[in-house]
Amino acid sequence: DLYRKVFVFRKDPSDAYVLLRAQAERPLRNFTVCLRSYTDLTRPYSLFSYATKAQDNEILLFKPKPGEYRLYVGGKFVAFRTPEGRWDWEHVCASWESATGLTEFWFNGKPWPRKGLQKGYAVGAEAAILLGQEQDAYGGGFDPYNSFTGELADVHLWGAGLSPEKMRAAYQGLRLPPALLAWKNLSYETRGDVVVKNRLRE
Questions:
Q1: Could you tell me the pLDDT band of residue 24, with boundaries at 50, 70 and 90?
Q2: What's the rounded Cα separation, in Å, for the pair 99 and 160?
Q3: Measured CA angle at 121 (ends 119, 92), to 5 deg
Q4: Digit-coded pLDDT (tens) for 85-129
Q5: 5-194 belongs to CATH 4.10.280.10
Q6: Of all helices (H) and strands (E), which one includes residue 116?
Q7: What range(s) does the Pentraxin (PTX) domain occupy (predicted)?
Q8: How far apart are CA 110 and CA 104, in angstroms?
């Protein structure tokens, strides 16, 4: 249970990452990924990387530059522009549904205009799921200049889309439905220079 805890990635650039174990062993036709990050990086960095042997960017939450997030599904991406410059925790949730190909992106509890991506696609099962690195091969192939440095918390992955109420609840840290990856019941291994510490501030 990582309640009120954070992963601190201390070095820049870094080869460190956190390996997560999800409850999912079947393909995903819907998903929602949420997390909170705190960093002063301005270069590109990866937050959440879900790779299969067939596709390294099966699900990827990536920040190529200040003021932009990218959500990849099956190797293709949509971009969302966000306000920048507050040096504060940023909470993001991204969801996707295969039937319509619609993606939702929520930034600090507010929805952005929806975009279309990979209609009819299925996200492969048996994935390597990493925080802090972008996989260019299954479980590896890291570029240190896409690594994350800073603090990460409140990581969740659901095999479903969340309602607007639940998206806001994720931002507020309230009770959430059972998840494939849940921050309060997380199966993980740290690799390299990552430490688990108490959260300093809200």
A1: low
A2: 12
A3: 75
A4: 778 999 999 999 999 999 999 999 999 999 999 999 999 999 999
A5: no
A6: strand 115-116
A7: 3-202
A8: 10
